[in-house]
TrEMBL record:
GO terms for molecular function: transmembrane transporter activity. Its main location: membrane. This is TRAP transporter large permease protein. InterPro entries: DctM (IPR010656), TRAP_DctM (IPR004681). Part of the tripartite ATP-independent periplasmic (TRAP) transport system. The chain crosses the membrane at residues 6-39, 60-82, 102-130, 142-166, 178-208, 229-252, 258-276, 288-306, 326-345, 352-369, 375-400, 412-435. One of its GO terms (cellular component) is plasma membrane. It is found in: Cell inner membrane. Belongs to the TRAP transporter large permease family. Residues 12-435 form the TRAP C4-dicarboxylate transport system permease DctM subunit domain. The complex comprises the extracytoplasmic solute receptor protein and the two transmembrane proteins. It comes from the Bacteria. It is a multi-pass membrane protein. The lineage of its organism: Bacteria, Pseudomonadati, Pseudomonadota, Alphaproteobacteria, Rhodobacterales.
Length: 441
């Protein structure tokens, strides 16, 4: 059996192991170890490469970016920033069509710029936005679907944990990936807002329990909030975003330094709001360690897996097949995005990146595709998987947090379909118009 055939069989084995429930890190280590052993017929070489990968995999200063941004996101989450952001958005947008839905998207957009994790957004806004939307006559399923759908912005709007992981796997600039995510992220948020407004006009009964009462309620004064209160709630958040992203994009900070500054700023914000006692600080630090070590272990495993693929000659072989098939760059990207969408139905986002990026990124580079654009396409496709059954982790997070027997998982999945349609449209825009993701590079 050729090394290429072994490589393809091992990829199939990896997917099967993950579907059966094996932890993705262990599956990657096991498959890569077995692959190098079989292809080179050398057990000691496989062990030696594992040792070298484990050392070089996390010795880079760049890897400090991960725990720092994770720490920043967790500190922001315990500071009630999500609640304040939603309250301000509600006060400013209550007269707009589908005002609270738009406010949820706007609040998620701002919250994403200081957390970078979709699951955190889904959990926070389920507690904050859904009860308020129900109180104003929105259907519970629609409110839950809006929270789940807009929570995916956390994976695209920088600083995003998925963009960091992709940057490490594809060996591209993390700062560049953050720049590439700005326009697609804003385009996605804008698309969500337009979709919600159109839906409230064309299908009001899908949005409101009583459309006439909701129309009358929109004409009312609504929540009053003095400008001084709005400024007090939003100034720290805006300053934190400007501090981190402004310093990063201006070149004043490296991504690692930006993460450190952001974590310190979030710590000061949490102290100023008196939302951080010793118990909470310990919980945040412990959770930061658990998440960071898990991600770093995954990245070491992915690096080992990538070396096995290179030894098997898999990326070059697939690149040759793509070239001979006449697919071209666009055809390859669409085919790749379709595979990622299908994998999103059964695997979590990080697992998809770890499995697919080491294979696909070298092929994309060989076809002349900008790897920053390719990364944005990958992340959007992965994000869609957060909303598609049967996995749909964002939907299940909202459902479990809501804990309402009258709102089923199936209803939330149906309510997220318009968001999936918008995401597919943005995905195609990024594929056909590379400048959308490369304009700031």
């Amino acid at each position: 059996m050729t090394s290429l055939a072994i490589g393809f069989l091992l990829i199939g084995l990896l997917v099967v192991l993950v579907i059966l429930g094996m932890q993705i890190a262990y599956a990657l280590f096991g498959v890569a170890f077995l692959g190098i052993w079989l292809i080179r017929d050398n057990f000691e070489l496989s062990l030696r490469m594992l040792e070298l990968t484990a050392y070089s995999g996390i010795s880079d200063y760049l890897f400090a970016t991960i725990p720092l941004f994770v720490l920043m996101g967790l500190l922001v989450s315990v500071s009630n920033v999500g609640r304040d952001t939603f309250e301000v958005a509600e006060a400013l947008l209550h007269r707009v069509l589908c005002g609270l839905g738009v406010a949820t998207v706007a609040a998620n957009t701002i919250f994403a710029a200081v957390t970078g994790v979709s699951i955190a957004s889904a959990a926070v806004f389920t507690r904050v936005a859904v009860p308020e939307m129900e109180r104003h006559g929105y259907r519970a399923s629609f409110a839950s679907g809006t929270v789940a759908g807009s929570s995916v912005l956390g994976m695209l709007i920088p600083p995003s944990l998925l963009l960091i992981i992709y940057g490490v796997l594809a060996e591209v600039s993390i700062g560049g990936m953050f720049l590439a995510g700005i326009i697609p992220g804003l385009l996605l948020a804008g698309g969500f807002i337009v979709m919600l407004m159109v839906l409230s006009v064309l299908a009001p009964r899908l949005v409101f329990t009583d459309p006439d009462a909701a129309r009358d309620r929109r004409r009312e004064t609504g929540l009053q909030m003095p400008l001084s209160v709005i400024a007090a709630k939003m100034t720290p958040i805006v300053l934190l975003v400007i501090l981190v992203l402004g310093g990063l994009y201006s070149g004043f900070f490296t991504p690692t330094e930006a993460g450190g500054i952001g974590a310190f700023g979030a710590f000061v914000l949490a102290l100023a709001r008196r939302s951080l006692d010793r118990h909470r600080l310990w919980q945040v630090m412990k959770q930061t360690g658990v998440i960071s070590v898990s991600i770093l272990l995954l990245l070491v495993a992915a690096s080992y897996y990538s070396r096995m693929l290179s030894i098997a000659g898999l990326p070059n072989a697939i690149s040759g097949l793509v070239t001979e098939s006449g697919f071209g760059p666009v055809g390859f990207v669409l085919f790749y995005a379709g595979i990622v969408l299908l994998m999103g139905m059964i695997l979590d986002s990080t697992s998809i990146l770890l499995i697919m990026v080491p294979i696909a990124a070298p092929i994309a580079a060989g076809l002349g595709i900008d790897l920053s654009q390719f990364g944005i396409i990958t992340v959007i496709a992965v994000e869609i998987g957060l909303l598609t059954p049967p996995f749909g982790i964002s939907v299940f997070t909202v459902h479990n947090t809501l804990n309402d027997p009258n709102t089923t998982v199936e209803q939330i999945f149906l309510a997220t379909l318009p968001f999936i349609a918008v995401m597919l449209a943005v995905l195609l825009i990024v594929v056909w118009i590379p400048a959308v993701s490369t304009a700031f590079l």
